[in-house]
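re: ur msg from earlier - yeah i can do the FE2/S2 (inorganic) cluster complex, just paste it... oh wait u already did. ok heres what im feeding in:
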Amino acid sequence: MAERTGLKKGLTNYGDLEFSLFLRKAFIKGAGYTDEALDRPIVGIANTGSGFNPCHGNMPQLIEAVKRGVMLAGGIPIEFPTISIHESFSHPTSMFLRNLMSMDTEELIRAQPMDSVVLIGGCDKTVPAQLMGAASAGIPAIQLVTGSMLTGSHRGTRVGACTDCRRYWGHYRADEIDATEIADVNNQLVASVGTCSVMGTASTMACLGEALGIMLPGGASAPAVTADRTRIAEQTGTRAVAMIAAGMTPDRILTAQAFENALRVLLAIGGSTNGIIHLTAIAGRMGIRIDLDQVDAMSAETPVLVDLKPSGEHYMEDLHRAGGLTTVLRELRPLLHLEALTITGRTLGEELDAAPPPFSQNVVRSLSQPIYPRGGIAVLRGNLAPSGAIIKQSAAAPELMVHEGRAVVFENTQDMAERIDLPDLDVHADDVLVLKQIGPIGAPGMPEAGYIPIPKKLARQGVKDMVRISDGRMSGTAAGTIVVHVSPESACGGPLGLVRTGDRIKLDVPERCISLLVEQAELEARARQLTPPEPDPTLRGYRKLYLESVLQADQGCDFDFLLPTEFTDSVPRSKPSST
Ligand code: FES
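and the outut:
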């Protein structure tokens, strides 16, 4: 039987499919559609607009433009809502909800009759959630991002969310600025709708979407409120129709080569450490494993080229003016798989050949003059992190890359909140701050609390950075010598849970090592003293599903039951290849 398309897809089976179609048409005609419109290929548009998500505040304009593009190409666009997640409006954390959004996206793509889908996301967790869902749903899918917000200005200094949020808050904590000034700053950090204006997780995921080839070339960088962004939306709608006839399903795009390209780009842009977790989760849906040790090997041969905060100086709108991700991809060309297919139907190499010529700019460096000589992200192992940990070395203090210090331990975020600013806290600038219970299960939802604030008494003495270690995440907009994603996490028996104040910890980034300098016998004795948490009889709903199913950071924090039955590939390959 021929595959059913358009309105005939996924009919509810009452035992008479023709009646099901008759009924479906009757209902959608209630919205004023004609038979001629309903006979066209259907492009679904995932609408993630929400009053609680200003990062998606341009959703109405984007949807209008996507619809125009779809109709110009002879399709019929039908938008549908899914969950929307904003970083600041998602309790307990946005990461807690990412997998729920991916399930929502997957099931609504599957349930509703669409021949292809435009995924409109932007804020940190939305793009990975949409790509995870679309990868599993399997119909032609194209990513559109809302685009970055504009930068603001505070007393003549350019500011943007959220690297400057943390920087100014640090000044305020150190009594360097007063309450009036911090309130003024608050009005300027987010100057328009759109996603954070630095190379945080949202910008990182936008770039990775383009590097994966599942977004139009040039689609990552245009700010939210520009004509460029609206034009990209229209072109995305047009392309979504062509992808139907071309059978451009995610398995043709999200290949091992595409993930290697994306990892290479993640390293070269000084991208967010969250990008590794999300790429691991998206790749996992395609049966592809991300090998952290090989990511580290790739990192060692990939310089950071993009001069954006928090690793550098500029903002996302500057990257757009500098030619967008194309400028980065052109520079990385010798290190990329140019034969990887993109949703345009052309390969990455063909797209680069067709791109506008390069011009002089100061945002993207050349391979020979990088902003940072090696990849921004290093993978650490050792007795403190047997399954790995991550540090964004491009945003860390060079003098702390090899450091041994005394552990000052906070048992959880509440303990930290209660004690970190106490005047009599026993802490010194060369200590190592340790925060437990903020892993995928511990918090739950792996909050971005890994950016442990510098204790106020030290901040007032001018201390700007310390070695900080946790099983949580850190915002892609944050900078500092911060070790995150320690796996396995403290809440499920990881050695981080055994650390006590006064222990010595050694960080050695060049040796890729993080060590708890305590005898093994002592650690075993401490482990025996731990009492496992009591089962919670009141646990219910999504939280129960989450706690019973979430995987660790090195496995992408996906739910175990959402992965395919087996992994068929692993990337990066042991010898990253050049093409
Ligand atoms: Fe939405 Fe930063 S809070 S992108």
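cool cool. Residues 98 and 129 are 6 Å apart (CA to CA). ping me if u need the other ligands too
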